[in-house]
Amino acid sequence: MKKECLGMQEEGGRFRKEREVCEKKKLTNSIGMEFLKIPAGEFKMGSNGCDFEKPIHTVKIPKPFYLGKYTVTQKQWKAVMGNNPSDFKDDDRPVGQVSWNDVQEFVRKLNEMEGTDEYRLPSEAEWEYGCRAGTTTRYLFGDDASDLDDYAWWDKNSGCTTHPVGQKKPNPWGLYDVHGNVWEWCQDEWHDDYTGAPDDGSSWEDGSSSDRIIRGGGLGVEAWYCRSAFRYYFQPDGRGSPVGFRLLRKI
Predict the structure, then answer these.
(1) How does residue 208 score in pLDDT terms, banded at 50, 70 and 90?
(2) What number does CATH give the domain 2-249?
């Protein structure tokens, strides 16, 4: 028991150090979006939890990148798009009811505002890599869902509404709300499993499906759907209330 407790203390210290490193290398753009620098590396993507999460495979992320510390808020969406489609109105809550197509337009306009072409949605692999932040367990905090309340807004504690970003504990790299609150769009097309998936972290867009990937679980789902490996899909023009996104900025 003492050894287990010591291990948790050592792990917690390592996680704090990693988070501090990411925070020191953060970037903030002109509309207040904060990005943390995610290091290059490799990880085991997927799980044996569902057929569409198989096979577990190694993905190498060749270059570091910036990833949104939070999901995009309603205030930030309004600053770019001039409207707010969300059900649960609040500047500090994540924007919701945005389609994948809507997000592509947001990205186009934000790049234009910032005078760059570096902003985009993360690939599914980049999203899971950022979510896991070096962890290999079901959730970023371990395998037991009993601690999910500390990290996520989900079916048991959300009250069927979104909540302002950043109120729960972050993952080891300082990213908030990677479990719960709103589902998050990724760039990739849906594939029924990972057979033939890229192993370099790039988005997978050569399939026959028009559906796009969503990740992270949402405010109305059970704990199982908040797992780091869980993946699902939605139509690119669909505007589900609890679907939002976080952005990647290339370095």
Answers:
(1) confident
(2) 3.90.1580.10
Question: Which is nearest to 92 in space by CA: 105, 80, 108, 76?
Answer: 76
Classify residue 115 as exposed, middle or buried by CB count within 10 Å of its CB (0-12, 13-18, 19+).
Answer: exposed
Is residue 153 a contact partner of residue 168, using CB atoms and an 8 Å limit?
yes
Residue-wise pLDDT for 39-63, tens only, equals: 999 999 999 999 999 999 999 999 9
SS3 16: helix
**Which residues have C-beta within 8 Å of that of residue 217, sequence separation ≥ 6?**
152, 154, 179, 180, 183, 225, 226, 227, 230
The half-sphere exposure of 209 on its side-chain side, counting CA atoms within 13 A, is 15
The token duo for 122 is 């993360």
CB 237 within 8 A of CB 99: yes
List of residues 6+ apart from 9 with CB closer than 8 A: none
Instruction: Give me the chain's average pLDDT, please.
Output: 92
What does the alpha-carbon distance between residue 205 and residue 211 come to, in Å, rounded to a whole number?
A: 10
CA distance 234 to 212: 6
- The domain spans of the chain are 2-249
